[in-house]
Specification:
The protein is mainly β and 325 residues long. The protein has a domain at 216-322: Phosphorylase Kinase, domain 1, CATH 3.30.200. It is 15% helix and 44% strand. It is built from five helices and 20 strands. It has helices spanning 3-14, 25-42, 124-127, 206-209, 310-319, and strands at 45-53, 56-67, 70-77, 84-88, 91-95, 101-105, 128-138, 141-150, 157-163, 169-175, 181-192, 211-214, 230-232, 240-247, 255-261, 266-273, 283-287, 290-297, 300-306, 320-322. The longest helix has 18 residues, at 25-42. The protein is globular.
């Protein structure tokens, strides 16, 4: 797998998903999703969470501040390999585990945790059914459960526990096609608003001592919005193109990054030119909950990555071709 695809894997892994009476359960559920999306992007919060995936258990610390300076976010691994990610209006800097470089990208400024890309056009319900669950306490806060049930096998389900007053996500479970959790995230402590210590936004020693390397992500420096040169001629039900960036022109160094979403699940498609004799593993691969599919065609490498079932990345990867204009 190329460096671009490898970094894409990291981004996919880090990007894990963002009472009162209501007129009906459907209205209640939709309102809960909307409130969660707003809270995760607009609130300031800080806390420690545990992320469990298979036999792996990671403890991480997040500080997310939204104020007059914009959105600033710092994520630090407390257990396991040393990792640190810093995001602000200048882009993102992160240290890959077991690497001596700090990667930076001025064009990539999406949240790494924990923000679900809830669509604002009401199309989520075409791919999922929503059900409000019970109340419980998480990290000392009252929380309400929201079940997001997939309508087919092209996407996973979600169990979400949202802080009752704000809608902030306190616990998340990714539900596999067999109906069992395949990954879990849960805050163990959390604070909001003025209680957040903004000093924790300051970069640690890792981001200071290592040399800086431009990540060359397709969504990064030098990229530009344009009509995709390559794109799938068909998609699984509910998935739509949400963003596209192109890096480089002609000859060598052409990369495209397309992002597709059904309102909750997100799939990235990377297209890059390669030398004919490049030895690259193709087909399906898996890292934790993330599936990837790669294939070579016409001197190009197509890689599809997402926290979705393998059938989804293969469907999209097989459908990518030069776009008709």
């Amino acid at each position: 797998m190329t460096r671009i695809a490898a970094i894409g894997f990291l981004l996919a892994l880090m990007s894990v998903p963002a009472g009162g009476a209501f007129a009906s359960e459907a209205d209640d559920a939709r309102l809960m999703l909307d409130r969660m999306s707003t809270a995760m992007s607009q609130m300031s919060y800080q806390g420690t969470f545990v992320y469990v995936r298979g036999d792996e258990v990671e403890t991480m610390r997040i500080t997310h501040v939204s104020d007059r300076h914009g959105v600033r976010e710092r994520l630090v691994a407390i257990s396991g390999p040393q990792r640190e990610i810093l995001r602000d209006s200048n882009g993102v800097r992160w240290v890959l585990a077991d690497d001596s470089s700090v990667f930076e990208d001025q064009g990539y400024n999406h949240a790494f945790f924990p923000e679900l890309p809830v669509d604002q056009h009401g199309s989520t319900e075409t791919s999922y059914s929503l059900k409000v669950g019970d109340e419980t306490r998480i990290a000392g806060q009252q929380a309400r459960n929201l079940k997001v049930i997939p309508n087919d096998n092209y996407r996973y389900g979600y169990d979400l526990w949202l802080e009752e007053r704000s809608g902030l996500l306190l616990k998340w479970e990714l539900i596999g096609n067999e109906g069992k959790p395949i990954a879990t995230m849960m805050f163990t402590d959390i604070r909001f608003g003025s209680e957040v210590d903004i000093n924790e936004l300051q970069p640690g020693s890792q981001l200071k001592k290592f040399k800086t390397v431009e990540s060359r992500l397709p969504s990064g420096r030098g990229g530009a919005n344009s009509t995709p040169a390559w794109q799938p001629d068909s998609l699984p039900p509910g998935f739509k193109l949400t963003s596209h960036r192109r890096f480089g022109e002609g000859g060598q160094g052409i990369y495209e990054h397309l992002v597709y979403s059904d309102g909750l699940a997100v799939v990235s498609v990377y297209i890059e030119n390669i030398k004919p004799d490049t030895d690259i593993r193709t087909g399906i691969s898996r890292l934790g909950t993330t599936h990837a599919f790669s294939r070579k065609t016409g001197g190009m490498l197509i890689t599809v990555i997402g926290d979705v079932p393998d059938v989804t990345v293969k469907f999209i990867g097989d459908a990518v071709q030069i776009a008709a204009h």
